[in-house]
TrEMBL record, chain A:
The keyword Metal-binding does not apply. The lineage of its organism: Eukaryota, Viridiplantae, Chlorophyta, core chlorophytes, Chlorophyceae. Its EC number is 2.5.1.18. Conjugation of reduced glutathione to a wide number of exogenous and endogenous hydrophobic electrophiles. It comes from Gonium pectorale (Green alga). This is glutathione transferase. Residues 1-78 form the GST N-terminal domain. GO terms for biological process: glutathione metabolic process. Belongs to the GST superfamily. Mu family. It catalyses: RX + glutathione = an S-substituted glutathione + a halide anion + H(+). The keyword Transmembrane does not apply.
Automatic annotation (TrEMBL), chain B:
Residues 2-79 form the GST N-terminal domain. GO terms for molecular function: glutathione transferase activity. Its EC number is 2.5.1.18. This is glutathione transferase. It holds the Pfam family GST_N.
Length: 221, 213
């Protein structure tokens, strides 16, 4: 049976799992979450949140825990202990940036002023040594460059890992908001994004109706 | 096995779970005060401009939860089956959600903090997935001694440490509302390796960098 994702009808925190399943060559089923259940049924929704993944015996929540499960399932967690470490580092680094991104979208409603401040703090290549809570696109760009085995197409080793799918998604989200600036500042991340978008499984998924249009729950982004 | 070296500030902070994992695994560690200038500018050693950083033989890595996962594999604290690993990962994320709230806590907001993240009547409220009851549910469903399976995992150490931090602030309330958590905290504190570490000078006095907590 295909893995089932229970979530809202947005990309949000389910998108990377969908990419992983598509790249892993499987299909997935999407079920809209029942908000009442999510808040009350702590057996199914252990932290009162979704997405939730059901895949055979596995029934779990916490998006990054689900991503790690799928990474093990589809061989996207690196080929050695050192590579697994590197994948985990990048998952944490993307999460730091995602937290800032979600604040920009949900709390700051993508208004001009916070948007400009966001670019300056978390994206502008000049500001990477300043205070940013470990959240900066330059860190991800540098990790991509540093991995000579990947040649700009993989962040860890020479094959696709969960780290690549996370970085693809966070770049994708930023490209929607900062298109031109992003292209000028990070051509490497743009090229990487194009490469991942063309991978077998992912290419078909991105062109299909399963790729839902809404990025976030509030029509922004 | 190589002896891990932790580069960090002279506090417990985000290195404490790492130290607990090493001593629970029967290992020992060295600590080095981080060079802040280097941390901010050397992207090879500090890819995200942050610490702790762990150096262990060929391994050199940052991001506290990534280091915790590496140490979990090294000392077999990651769960024995695929199912157990999934639960360990869920708990780590759940503790992290609460930790983020903890590090942002201000003295004046203590009452609201307790109400939002600890009061048993608020688990269905808005809390960003951060509530002690969520974590305690895993513990009680699994018998009370360990969070996952029948042996120590990194999830236990994460829960122990976040409990320890909150005991310093909300001792009376915690004892009253979460007795099972207090019993768990005592049980873990008495485990071989951990017991000796907690009584040693290696257990630093300062939990945070601003002399609070």
């Amino acid at each position: 049976m295909a893995p089932k994702i229970v979530y809202f009808p947005v990309r949000g925190r389910a998108e990377v799992m969908k990419l992983a399943i598509a790249y892993g060559g499987e299909d997935f089923e999407l079920e809209l979450v029942n908000y009442e259940d999510m808040k009350k049924d702590t057996d199914a929704y252990k932290f009162g949140q979704c997405p939730r993944l059901i895949d055979g015996d596995v029934d779990m929540v916490q998006s990054n825990a689900i991503c790690r499960y799928l990474a093990r399932k589809y061989g996207l967690y690196g080929k050695s202990d050192a590579e697994t470490n590197a994948v985990d580092e990048i998952l944490e680094g993307v999460e730091s940036l995602r937290t800032k991104y979600l604040t920009l979208v949900y709390q700051d409603k993508l208004a001009d002023e916070p948007k400009a401040a966001y670019w300056k703090t978390h994206c502008d290549p000049e500001s990477a040594a300043a205070r940013n809570g470990g959240a900066h696109l330059a860190y991800l760009s540098r990790l991509l460059k540093r991995n000579s085995a990947g040649g700009g197409k993989a962040l860890v080793g020479s094959d696709v890992t969960m780290a690549d799918l996370q970085v693809f998604d966070i770049v994708d989200l930023h490209a929607r908001i900062f298109g031109d600036e992003l292209k000028a500042a990070y051509p490497d991340l743009i090229a990487f994004h194009e490469h991942i978008a063309g991978l077998p499984g992912i290419k078909e998924y991105l062109a299909s109706p399963k790729r839902v249009a809404a990025v976030n729950g509030n029509n922004l982004g | 096995m190589s002896k891990p070296v932790i580069h960090y500030f002279p506090i417990r902070g985000r290195a404490e779970v790492l130290k607990l994992a090493i001593v629970a695994g029967g290992g020992d560690f060295d600590t080095v005060d981080v060079n802040y200038q280097e941390q901010k500018t050397n992207r090879s050693l500090y890819p995200f401009g942050q610490c702790p950083r762990l150096v262990d033989g060929d391994i050199d890595l940052v991001q506290s939860n990534s280091i915790a996962r590496y140490l979990a594999r090294k000392y077999s604290l990651q769960g024995k089956t695929e199912q157990e690993q999934c639960v360990v990962d869920m708990l780590m994320e759940g503790v992290e959600s609460l930790r983020v709230k903890y590090v942002n806590l201000e003295e004046a907001a203590k009452e609201v903090y307790w109400k939002t993240y600890f009061d048993k009547s608020t688990t269905e409220g808005r809390n960003g997935g951060a509530h002690m009851q969520y974590l305690v549910n895993f513990l009680t469903a699994n018998g009370g001694q360990f969070c996952v399976g029948d042996a120590l995992t990194i999830a236990d150490l994460c829960l122990w440490e976040i409990t320890d931090l909150h005991l310093r602030i909300f001792e009376e309330q915690l004892k009253e509302v979460y007795p099972e958590l207090i019993a768990f905290h005592e049980h873990i504190a008495g485990l071989p390796g951990i017991k000796e570490y907690l009584a040693s000078p290696k257990r630093l006095a300062a939990p945070n960098a601003n002399s609070l907590g």
